[in-house]
C-alpha cells in the first residue's frame, strides 16, 4: 500500500498506533506546532501535533529524533565562521526536541546524531506493520511517499528501528546543551537559551 498524502499517512499511522502495544518512529528533526518560544502555536497547525496528541497515552511509543551537525554558510574568515543567526536557529531547533518531550511526556523521546531515517513500525507480539518512506515529523509541505510493509519485511524494519533506538540517548536538556557547545564550539547557544542572546 502506498501513502501519497499527509492525510493518508497520518490517518494510517494513527490507526496502526492505536491498535498496537509497541511502536518506534524515527525522524530527522521534529516540529509539532511547538515554536521556538516553547509554546504550541496554533497559527501553524500540524498533523504531527494532532497525531502526537492522539497517541499521547500510548503504552510504549518511542520517538527517535535525528540531530545533525552544526553548519553555517557564514564565511570562515569572518567571526571564525560563527553566524549568530545560524547558531541561534540551530540551538533553538535542537532544544525544541526537549520541549516536545515536555508536552508529550508519556512517549519515550530519544536523540541520535546523524539519523536521517524515516520509518515507523508497530507491533503486537510477533505481528508487525511498518511504514517506510521520506516523511519527517516536521510539518513539511514537500511531496513525500511512504510504503506500508507487513510480515517478514516489517519484522526486519522493527529490528532496524530497535537497533537505532539502542544507539540513541534519552532526550535530556543538559545533554542537548553539551551537544550544542561541543558541536558549535561556542557558548552563544547558552546565552540564547538563557535569554541573553
Rg over CA atoms, rounded to whole Å, is 17 Å
What percent of the residues sit in helical stretches (DSSP H or I)? 25-40%
CATH class: Alpha Beta
Please state the average pLDDT score: 88
Q: What is the number of independent domains?
A: 1
CATH architecture: 2-Layer Sandwich
The number of strands is 8
CA(first)-CA(last) distance: 48 Å
Quote the beta fraction: 15-25%
User: Judging from the principal axes of the Cα atoms, what is the shape?
Assistant: globular
* Count of individual helical segments: 6
CATH superfamily: Endonuclease Chain A
Biggest β-sheet strands, sense, barrel: 8 strands, mixed
Write down the secondary-structure element order: EHEHEHEEEEHEHH
Q: What is the SS-derived class? A: alpha+beta
How is the largest sheet built, in terms of strand order? 1-7-6-5-2-3-4-8
Low-pLDDT windows of residues: none
Please explain how this structure is put together:
The chain is of the alpha+beta class. The protein has one domain: Endonuclease Chain A (Endonuclease, Chain A, 2-Layer Sandwich), CATH 3.30.870.10. It contains six helices and eight strands. The protein has helices at residues 6-18, 47-54, 84-103, 151-167, 173-184, 188-193, and strands spanning 2-3, 22-28, 61-67, 108-113, 119-124, 127-133, 146-150, 169-170. The protein has an eight-stranded mixed beta sheet, with helices on both faces. Strand 3, helix 3 and strand 4 (108-113) form a beta-alpha-beta unit. It starts with a strand and ends with a helix.
